[in-house]
Amino acid sequence: MSPFRSHMKAALAAARAAAARGEVPVGAVVVSPGGTVIAAAGNRTRELNDPTAHAEILALRAACAAAGSERLPGHDLYVTLEPCPMCASAISQARIARLYYGAADPKSGGVAHGPRIFQHPQSHHVPEVYDGIDAAEAEALLKAFFAARRG
Ligand SMILES: [Zn+2]
Predict the structure, then answer these.
(1) CATH of the domain at 59
(2) Is residue 97 part of a domain?
(3) Could you say which residues bind Zn(2+) here (predicted)?
(4) How does residue 91 score in pLDDT terms, banded at 50, 70 and 90?
(5) CA pair distance 1, 126, nearest whole angstrom
(6) What residues are designated binding site?
């Protein structure tokens, strides 16, 4: 096992790229058991006219395609914001080993808030969850984005 190294900076870069495209700035990366980033994505719901095109879903799809598998055992997912219930469920379905996320999302999150997907008995696979990783930076990106849209 390789020594721990956070890949949240790569997820934050994907979030900033999403903001530059006019999308809500959330970014996600999937890291292989060997410690390589195999997929990175930011939100593309507007660009793709797709309410499911959250950063985590796009990153999982790309990672599964790269791995040639519908499951990603031993892989880690980093995302700048607490996953919503849809993404939390997809993370469970993909058998992600560890989830690292940044900002908490009391309004739309589904991990520590709302339905708390991983605590639900129907969640057949539960990743290890680490929250608050670079949370201030992720929150600042979101605040700046929504402030600019209101202004
Ligand atoms: Zn989501």
Answers:
(1) 3.40.140.10
(2) yes
(3) 54, 84, 87
(4) very high
(5) 20
(6) 54, 84, 87
What average pLDDT does the segment 107-133 reach? Answer: 97
Instruction: Give distance in angstroms: CA of 17 to centre of ligand 1.
Output: 17
Say if 27 falls within a structural domain: yes
**pTM of the prediction?**
0.96
Helices (H), 22-104: 45-48, 55-67, 85-93
Q: Which domain holds residue 57?
A: 12-82+89-105+116-129
Q: Rounded to the nearest whole angstrom, what is the distance from the C-alpha of residue 150 to the centroid of ligand 1?
A: 23
Q: Share the mean pLDDT of the chain.
A: 96
* Separation CA 106–CA 45 (nearest Å): 21
- Is 70 noted as a catalytic residue in this protein? no
Query: How many Å lie between the centroid of ligand 1 and the Cα of residue 54?
Result: 5
The binding site for Zn(2+) comprises 54, 84, 87
- b/e code 27-51 from CB counts within 10 Å (16+ = b): bbbbbbeeeebbbbbbbbbeeeeee
Sheet holding 37-42, edge to edge: 37-42, 27-31, 76-81, 98-103, 128-130
